[in-house]
């Protein structure tokens, strides 16, 4: 008698393939957590929008009647707030600039000092080049004046 190789049944093979394809439990928990969180946030967004619309409907007559008081007050508050924040910002920028200049002149090499040194050397080189060109051109003009008016 020949020994038959043990072949798994069709249902066992199907179950094994199904288990291989099934998502892992941590993926399933992640998807369920995502769905629950999205549902809660969607409900909260709906409640917030509904509350805002209902509040606007209830308080709109009061807002319209008292708007001659609110508009100037809001304008004045906006102007004072903008002025205060601007003064604070300019003051902070001034302090930062003065601190940078102090460190630069003390030789502490603050960030960006290499660019300032490079710009200073470029300006000096350009100025000396312009000065040399002016001397050459001035000499050229002097010779032309002497050619045009020999007695001058």
Outline:
The chain has 152 residues and is an all-alpha fold. The protein has helices at residues 10-21, 25-65, 67-105, 113-148.
SSE inventory with pairings:
Layout: H1 10-21, H2 25-65, H3 67-105, H4 113-148
InterPro entries: Oleosin
Family: Belongs to the oleosin family.
Protein name: Oleosin 16 kDa
Describe the protein in words:
By secondary structure, the protein is mostly helical. It folds into two domains: 102 residues, no CATH class; 39 residues. Helix content is 84%, strand content 0%. It has four helices and no strands. The longest helix is centred in the first third of the chain and has 41 residues. It is flat. The N and C termini lie far apart (137 Å). The mean pLDDT is 85.
Top keywords for this entry?
4 helices, 2 domains
């Amino acid at each position: 008698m020949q020994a038959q190789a043990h072949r798994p049944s069709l249902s066992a093979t199907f179950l094994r393939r199904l288990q291989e394809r099934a998502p892992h439990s941590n993926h399933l928990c992640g998807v369920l957590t995502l769905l629950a969180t999205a549902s809660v946030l969607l409900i909260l967004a709906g409640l917030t929008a509904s509350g805002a619309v209902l509040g606007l409907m209830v308080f709109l007559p009061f807002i319209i009647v008292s708007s001659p008081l609110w508009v100037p007050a809001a304008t004045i508050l906006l102007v004072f707030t903008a002025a205060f924040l601007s003064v604070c910002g300019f003051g902070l920028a001034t302090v930062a600039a003065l601190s940078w200049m102090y460190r630069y002149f003390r030789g502490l090499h603050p960030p960006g000092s290499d660019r300032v040194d490079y710009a200073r050397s470029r300006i000096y080189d350009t100025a000396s080049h312009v000065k040399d060109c002016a001397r050459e051109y001035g000499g050229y003009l002097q010779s032309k004046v002497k050619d045009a008016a020999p007695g001058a």
